[in-house]
Structures are given as C-alpha cells and as structure tokens.
C-alpha cells in the first residue's frame, strides 16, 4: 500500500512539474500566448487592465467588447504579483507567465493544506495523505488548471483552508474556527462565484453536530460579506455578476459529457467510496478511529451530497467544463481519508492508490490527454511570423494575438466569450460590433479563418483583398484608397 501511495505521489508531482515547464516554455516562445485552458486570453487581458489601473468590469457592448466574469479578488489578488513582475521586467508580455506561476503557487499551497489535514486524519500515515493531496491538486481532473491564469485553483485552496480550520477547531474553539472558516470561504467565493458548495457542506456539518451558534455565525459572516461586496464594488461589478448568472445557455448533453469526464478522472476516489460502502456492513469501526476522522467523513459526505448535483447543474452551461467538480473532488478526498481511518479496507486502499498512480502514469507518458503545448506554440509562432508585420490597426480571429502589447496601435479586441451568442441574439453593440468596423474598412489588416466567405461577423469584406494563408487562417489587407 505504501508503494502505491509513493507511486501516486511521485507521478502526480511529476505531472505537475511537467505541465509547469510546458507553460513556462510556451510563455517564453514568441508570441508567448499559447493557452493552457479555454478562454484564458480573457483573464490575461482583464489582468492587464487591472495592472494598468483600468476598469476590469466594463460594458461588454462597447469597444473592445471584452468581459471579466470572475469575482473581484481574482483580479485584485493576481494584480499584485503580476504587477510586480511587469514593473521588474518592463514588459506586459510577462503577464501570462507571472499569472501561471501565481496559480501554480496556489496549487502547492492547496496541496500542502490538504496534506496537513489528511495526515492528522490518517494518524501519521503521511505517505497516503501526500498521495491523496497531490492527486487532488495535481491529478487528471485539475490538469492544466493547476497552471492556467484562472481563479479556480486558488478558490479551491481557500476552500480547503476553510475546511481544515473548521475540522481542526470546531471542538476546541467553535466560534473562532467558524469565523476564520467564514473568511476563507468568502475568499474562495471572491475568487469565483461558484465556490459556495463547500460552505453549504460546512453549514450542514455544523447543524448535524448541533453546533447552532457556530453555524449561525458562519452563515451571518458569509451573507454580510457578500452584501458588503455588492454594495461597495459598484454597478459595473453588479452588472457583470448578473450577466454571469442570467445570460447563460444550458445543454443537458454538455453536463453529461463533463460528468463522465469527472468520473473517469477521479475514478480512484470513487472506487474507494463505492467499495467501502459495499463492505461497510461486514466491517466495524477500528478502535483507532478518531473523532477527527469521523468528523472528516461526515463533512465530506455532506459536502459531496451538495457539491456533486450543483456542479452537474452548473456544468450544463455553454462554455463550462469539468472544473465545476473541483469542490466535489475535495469532498471525495475527505470521504476517502475518513473511510481509510474508520474502516479496515487495506486492499481497497491499495487498489485505489494503484489506480491513481496508473492514471497519472498514462498522463505523464502521453497516452492520455496532453502534457505539453508544443503543437500550439509552433502553430502560433508560424502565424505570428507573418502577422506581426501587417499594418495596424488590425484584428485576428486568434484572439490571443489581439493582446495589447502585441498590437500597440490597434484596439485590443480580445472578444468576450459571450460576444458571439449576444450578437446572434440581436444585442446592440457600439459601431455595430466587429462586423460594423470591418464593413466600414476600419482595419488595415485582418487574420481570418481560411474558410471565411464574403462576410465576417456580419460585416462585408468588400474593402479587403485576400492575401496569403498560414495554416488555417488567411491574411486580408485593406484595398488602397481610391483616387479622388
């Protein structure tokens, strides 16, 4: 069992390091914006605005039609280390690298916090605790999100810290632990609005323990902090928050796809949970089972019952992914640790850890998923070698090539994720959107998919001549102005 735990820990760490080196290399190669996750460019541009003192939450119907739909602390928190990196480096092109390293620091902090909790739960079985912690934060489900410039990992880290504080302190210092847990749960939510699942599990746990006053304190602290946030951050923030909640399109097929993805990538923990459940009637609690282990099992179970169905509902949203199950993964690890500590299930633990090591081995060897960004980096480098010489103002359908430091005399049209659906729904945009600018001949050069016809975004290309193609995109140049 210890060998399986060691293998899981080593392989999980190796995957994390390999992805990190790939993210660093991609940020170093021109143009330095190979993406580690979908729509990462939006966060990069929003963070650029935060570092340069510009409003983060802006009207998405006005140029440059950009969006910021994560919560305030993500942008405020990241702008500190990233701003320092920009000032020291003297170039905004360092933002992707600095942001990814900030996320990686969150992954390490979260894994350390979870390890600290689980080693207490497992009564000194440090290797198993380390294996579980690294599998949660460096495993297949978190994947590239352990390095990407997004708020999910730091939100999960704060949530882990809240759970740690509550489980270790609710017996000896109930009010103090509830207050500190409330602050940490708020920090998780203030990174990303969907991180309230863990708070729900904690409240259910405290009520189950009949700790009514700590439960009330935790609830009141959370509600008050949310209310203060909405009151202080202004109408732009409130409108961005409303748009995040209200302007969504849901498809059941998407949710089912991400549910399957979650089950596959967290299979070792589900194996342990289901196996222990089947074996439970035939076994009894071991004498070594501690109150902490039983509390961990209880909180994890409540959290799992809340997080899993809510994550499924949220993952049905267009543009979602399996990252909505990060809290579910955390709660699974708590249940797993509680079961290991309270049940005699050595063979089941061995099978679970062995499966985890096997999954990480498949990822590291390249048989499952991607472990580098080399193909994307080469593709972008080839396109950039042509595009960087085109006249400005210019627009590229690769929105990562519209970042402000790559085009100093062009509007940074890093279009919002929901720009296309909003246009299709008939929402009004300044200058009639990108298509209106193209129809008016505003841009001197365009980089569009090679399959583009006579229009793009509803705007006629009559002012442009088709030029050379690079990969799957083609350069369009504005026709010379006619003589008077």
Task: Offer a concise description of the structure.
This protein is mainly α and about 475 residues long.
Write the layout of secondary structure elements.
Blueprint: H1 2-28, H2 40-51, H3 72-89, H4 95-121, H5 126-138, H6 152-169, H7 174-191, H8 197-208, H9 212-232, H10 234-246, H11 252-265, H12 267-279, H13 291-315, H14 326-342, H15 346-364, H16 374-387, E1 394-396, H17 419-424, H18 433-439, E2 445-449, E3 455-456, E4 459-460, E5 464-470, E6 473-478
Parallel strand pairs: 1-2
Antiparallel strand pairs: 2-6, 3-4, 5-6
Keywords:
globular, 484 residues, two-stranded antiparallel ribbon, 18 helices, mainly alpha, single chain
Structural write-up:
This protein has 484 residues and is mainly alpha-helical. Helix 2 packs across helix 3 and helix 12 packs antiparallel against helix 15. The termini are far apart.
Encode the helix/strand succession as letters. Answer: HHHHHHHHHHHHHHHHEHHEEEEE
> Could you list the spans in which at least 5 consecutive residues all have pLDDT below 50?
283-287
| Major sheet strand order | 1-2-6-5
Taken from the alpha-carbon principal axes, the silhouette is: globular
Helix content, binned percent: 55-70%
Beta-strand portion reads: 5-15%
Summarize model confidence as the mean pLDDT. 92
Biggest beta-sheet profile = 4 strands, mixed
Structural class assignment: mainly alpha
Rg for CA atoms: 24 Å
Helix count, DSSP H or I runs of 4 or more residues? 18
Distance between the termini: 84 Å
**What is the count of β-strands?**
6
């Amino acid at each position: 069992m210890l060998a399986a735990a060691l293998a899981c820990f080593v392989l999980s760490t190796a995957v994390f390091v390999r992805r990190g080196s790939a993210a660093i290399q991609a940020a170093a190669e021109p143009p330095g914006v190979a993406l580690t996750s979908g729509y990462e460019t939006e966060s990069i541009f929003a963070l650029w605005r935060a570092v340069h003192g510009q409003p983060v939450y802006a009207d998405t119907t006005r140029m440059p039609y950009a969006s910021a739909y994560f919560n305030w602390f993500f942008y405020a928190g990241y702008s500190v280390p990233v701003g320092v990196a920009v000032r020291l480096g003297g170039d905004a092109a360092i933002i992707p690298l600095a942001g990814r390293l900030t996320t990686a620091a969150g992954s390490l902090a979260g894994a350390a916090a979870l390890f600290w909790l689980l080693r207490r739960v497992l009564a000194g079985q440090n290797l198993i605790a380390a294996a579980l912690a690294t599998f949660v934060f460096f495993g297949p489900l978190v994947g590239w999100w352990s390095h990407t410039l997004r708020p999910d990992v730091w939100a999960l880290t704060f949530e882990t810290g809240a759970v740690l504080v509550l489980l270790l302190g609710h017996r000896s210092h109930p009010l103090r632990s509830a207050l500190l847990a409330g602050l940490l749960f708020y920090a998780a939510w203030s990174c990303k609005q969907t991180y309230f699942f863990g708070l729900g599990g904690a409240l259910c746990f405290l009520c189950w323990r009949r700790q009514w006053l700590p439960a009330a304190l935790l609830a009141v602290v959370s509600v008050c902090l949310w209310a203060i946030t909405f009151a202080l951050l202004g109408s732009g923030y409130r409108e961005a928050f409303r748009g995040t909640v209200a302007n969504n399109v849901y498809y059941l097929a998407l949710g089912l796809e991400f549910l399957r993805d979650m089950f596959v990538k967290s299979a070792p923990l589900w194996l342990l949970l289901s196996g222990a459940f089947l074996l439970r009637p035939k076994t009894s609690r071991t004498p070594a089972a501690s109150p902490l282990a039983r509390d961990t099992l209880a909180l994890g179970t409540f959290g799992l019952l809340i997080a899993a169905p809510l994550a499924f509902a949220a993952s049905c949203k267009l543009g979602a992914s399996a990252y909505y199950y990060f809290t579910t993964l955390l709660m699974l690890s708590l249940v797993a640790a509680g079961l290991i500590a309270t049940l005699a299930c050595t063979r089941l633990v061995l099978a679970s850890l062995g499966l985890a090591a096997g999954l990480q081995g498949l990822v590291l060897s390249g048989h499952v998923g991607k472990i580098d960004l080399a193909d994307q980096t080469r593709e972008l480098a080839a396109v950039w070698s042509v595009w960087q010489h085109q006249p400005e103002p210019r627009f590229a359908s690769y929105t990562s090539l519209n970042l402000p430091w790559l085009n100093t005399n062009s509007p940074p049209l890093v279009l919002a994720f929901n720009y296309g659906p909003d246009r299709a729904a008939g929402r009004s945009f300044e200058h009639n959107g990108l298509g209106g600018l193209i129809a008016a001949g505003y841009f001197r050069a365009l980089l569009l998919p090679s399959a583009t016809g006579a229009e793009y975004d509803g705007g006629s290309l009559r002012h442009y001549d088709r030029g050379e193609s690079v990969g799957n995109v083609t350069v369009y140049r504005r026709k010379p102005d006619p003589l008077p």
